[in-house]
Write a structure and sequence with these properties.
The protein is α+β, with helices and mostly antiparallel strands. It has two domains: 19-54 and 106-144, Roll (PH-domain like); 58-103. 42% of the residues lie in helices and 26% in strands. It has three helices and seven strands, in the order βββββααββα. It has helices at 58-81, 85-103, 127-144, and strands at 19-22, 27-29, 32-35, 38-41, 45-52, 108-114, 117-124. The strands form two sheets. Strands 1-2-3-4 form a four-stranded antiparallel beta sheet, covered by helices on one side. Strands 5-6-7 form a three-stranded antiparallel beta sheet, covered by helices on one side. The protein is rod-shaped, with a radius of gyration of 26 Å. The mean pLDDT is 83. The chain crosses the membrane at residues 57-77, 83-102. Pfam families: DUF6232. Keywords: Membrane, Transmembrane, Transmembrane helix. InterPro entries: DUF6232.
């Protein structure tokens, strides 16, 4: 019989998956691309792209620009009158602005093209990691043929 060994086991003619990249939560093989919460079949991926979103800084910088003078004015008012209102408001605005600047860091994305459209597969602030994933996906697409 075709494909059977002497002991009745069926031999597989399929090649084992070749691993191109394996990290804690990302794995790229010749058959699959796995990220947290999603698995993509390499057979459906037609192209891969590295995408970088720009830094979002305007609103955070505006809050800091408004909050620092209030903070400095609030320090002098609180010493003279004992009122902490402007000091507290300035501290809140400057802190919120700093937080928004930190959150507005540029992000890198892995975008996959398939016959059904485009998908954002992975997003990270680590540009080098995303570039490694894109390179591994490109190698897997080429390996697939």
């Amino acid at each position: 019989m075709r494909g059977e060994s002497a002991f009745g086991e069926i031999r597989s003619s399929a090649q084992p998956e070749k691993v191109f990249l394996q990290l804690d939560n990302v794995k790229v093989t010749s058959a699959r691309f796995m990220v947290p919460g999603q698995t993509f079949a390499m057979s459906g991926i037609t192209s891969v792209q590295h995408w970088r979103t720009p830094r979002k800084w305007l609103f955070g910088a505006l809050l800091i620009f408004m909050g620092l003078p209030m903070l400095l004015t609030g320090v002098s008012i609180s010493r003279a009158e004992g009122s902490a209102g402007p000091l507290t408001l300035g501290l809140i605005l400057a802190g919120l602005g700093a937080y928004l600047l930190w959150r507005g860091r540029p992000q890198s994305q892995v975008r996959l093209q398939s016959a059904s459209g485009e998908a954002k597969a992975f997003t990270s602030h680590d540009d080098a990691l995303v570039r490694r994933i894109v390179a591994a996906l490109s190698d897997a697409i080429v390996y697939r043929g």
